[in-house]
Design a protein that fits this description.
The complex is a heterodimer of chains A (255) and B (506).
Chain A lengths: L1 H10 L21 E3 L10 H5 L5 E2 L5 E3 L8 H5 L5 E3 L14 E2 L12 H7 L3 E7 L5 H7 L13 E3 L8 E5 L4 H13 L5 E5 L1 H5 L21 E3 L6 H12 L8
Parallel strand pairs in A: 6-7, 6-8, 8-9, 9-10
Antiparallel strand pairs in A: 1-4, 2-3, 3-5
Chain B lengths: L6 E3 L3 E4 L5 E2 L1 H13 L3 E10 L2 E10 L4 E9 L2 E3 L9 H11 L2 E3 L43 E6 L11 E7 L2 E8 L7 H7 L2 H9 L6 H16 L5 H29 L3 H22 L8 E2 L2 E2 L5 H26 L2 H7 L7 H7 L3 H5 L7 H4 L20 H24 L17 E8 L4 E8 L5 E7 L1 H12 L8 H8 L3 H5 L1
Parallel strand pairs in B: 3-6, 7-8
Antiparallel strand pairs in B: 1-6, 2-14, 4-5, 5-6, 9-10, 10-11, 12-13, 14-15, 15-16
Classes of the chains: A alpha/beta (255), B alpha+beta (506).
Bound molecules: iron/sulfur cluster.
Iron/sulfur cluster (SF4) binds next to helix 3 of chain A.
Amino acid sequence: MIRAIRERWRQGYRTMPYPEQPPVLPDRVLGRPHLDPSRCPADCHACGEVCPTAAVTRNGGLALDLGRCLFCAACSRACPTGAIVWSGDWRMATRTRKATVVRGREIELAEALDTRLRRLLGRSFKIRQVSAGGCNACEADVNVLSTIGWDLGRFGIQLVASPRHADALLVTGPVPRNMQLALQKTYDATPAPKLVIAVGACAIAGGPFAGHEEITGGAAATLPVDLFIPGCPPHPATILDGLLRLLDRLPAATR
Amino acid sequence: MAGVSLAELHNGFSLPSSEVPRCGWDELCTEICTHIGSGARLAALAGRPVNDRLEVLVVLVRPEHGTLALGRAEVGARFASLTPACPAAHMFERELAEQWGVVPDGHPWLKPVRFHRSYRPGHDAWSRAVDDSILPCVTDFFRVDGEEVHEVAVGPVHAGVIEPGHFRFQCHGEHVLHLEIALGYQHRGVERALLAADPRRAIHLAETLAGDSTVAHTTAHCVALEALGAGQAPPRAEAIRAIALELERLANHVGDLGALAGDVGFLPTQSFCGRLRGDLLNLTALVCGNRFGRNLVRPGGVAFDLEPERASELGARLQEILQDVRGALELLFESSSVLVRFEGTGSVSSSLATELGLVGVAARASGLERDVRAELPVGMYRFAQVPVSTWHTGDVFARAWVRWLEVQRSAVLVSDLLAALPTGGLATRCPAPRGDRIAVAMVEGWRGEVCHLVQTDPGGRIATYKVVDPSFHNWMGLAMALRNQQISDFPLCNKSFNLSYCGHDL
Ligand code: SF4
């Protein structure tokens, strides 16, 4: 017991200052891309040709769909004029699928739930995570939010064991056909009102498995999705940003 | 020579397909059993349709020679099962049956593995019609009869943040008589896609085979492609790959040890390790910008360098983390309330582990010296020798203890590699695969050995891509570990193996 206390003392207080301060990310982390279509040379399709998931196109103006993007940076490396640059901005969550498409510097970040729903939730938000074909990377970066480093509990958010206790389902993975029924049943078992959060490229648009006949292409093929959190996997800060955005809990410094 | 009907191959190399001798199936089975009897183990069995027959390619690891042995035989619609003589083949034969619609006669428990249609329309091992629906885990389960025996079914959706799978327990009260594990919910069709692969997609499929083992799987994928194309990653790239692989091991082992502490209610170590795992993942992000090592390993080398300042920051932060890991784990292993829960729980004897063909941490915790970093070293491991960490008790304690030993050894290895990074380039161009060749790349990931077996057709296109995640060998180990345990010990036993669902389901 004494030893446990001594070790606790030695390890110290480890919860990070986010969201009061921006998260500290290593220099090579790719945040949300900034696009500058004015730099695109006529008839250049270098980005689209290298993209593994057809996330970036120039048809109808340079556009990059964060929902499909694996954040591999092949496009920015292929671009001869630097029209795609990675900003290091961790904020990427959106309320609609359309809003995940970047055309310039900004995107329409997720808005908070309406006041009625927020009042109903009060200060607690219970999430049931459902992995449906997830590779365990998104799952790990959701899980890490419960550790003392991120301490999800301080926001009243908790990952719960049963859909019966949940306000929201958080879906990861491309939803294989073999998992579709289980996902639907989990949703049905969740009491209304209920939200669905799609975390990661797979859950948003099938990720690297897009087009495989073994999958259904993400959460939206089965359920109505209320929050899209892009990334492969999204950084924990990106996931937490999305959740706090939904609940309107972000201080001005990181909003 | 590896015997009359087998060809010898070094890990990370390729050979012309024609050099792998063909023999009859029965002869091949005899050969496999002989080798296994003298210390070899089964690494992979892969099928490839040839006209209307199936060519089965086998890969054995022969640790005493430090080589692989390859053989092949053609089979028709039915053949005599290898499993009764070699239990380690049981999942492979079920997989062959499911993928190619062949029937291994005499297989003791021939069921689907992942619940998908056969890759050869018109061939189905269970005579299902093409329009019969195939529902995951709707199949026979082993049942124990008796008035007081009851069945407990868990999953696919579990209570934690964890991938889906179905577990069926046959219990007498709290006592587990038998556990049967049925997976397939995570099946995304990766192997099939790797055949057709859009070259832009292939590496991302490798990265997400098992997302917590990104570096292990991408390294195996790239080494196999390099072997087929006669490419070679430069020494600096090999060192960076090894550093990333060991960081992956460190993060997952530390995370698992924390979770094991949590499963027995020992909260200090659980919370310390939860944070430390994240800090270790951040070290990988320091190298390549992604906590799981995405975008780092590429055919021909690596995509990111470790400049001197970055390398020294990495080294310094690792030392700091390690000090906290040591504090957290000494607490764990000195706590009698923890040890009493770990010791004697979920035991797998070394003879059972050998019979089932277990690999990785699970094998080493049952006293088997199986670690391809030492047995079949490729890349940097040819120069940096890693001692194999084993323990003999085969229980939860052993699987925890082996992880702790490996944490210490991986940390030393990373420091050594950082201190002496080879100079030179990060990547060379990886030439296109040569035609009609077979390559095997095995990498010791944190769970155990990852095996990628790739065969090309005469035009250099990929004709067979077989992925064997260590979990494919080990799930049966977990099922056996649960026999005669309390059902309430399942989470603890499960975490002590911590196997991959998606790596199994592909
Ligand atoms: S970074 Fe995203 S958009 Fe760019 S090539 Fe990779 S997947 Fe495509």
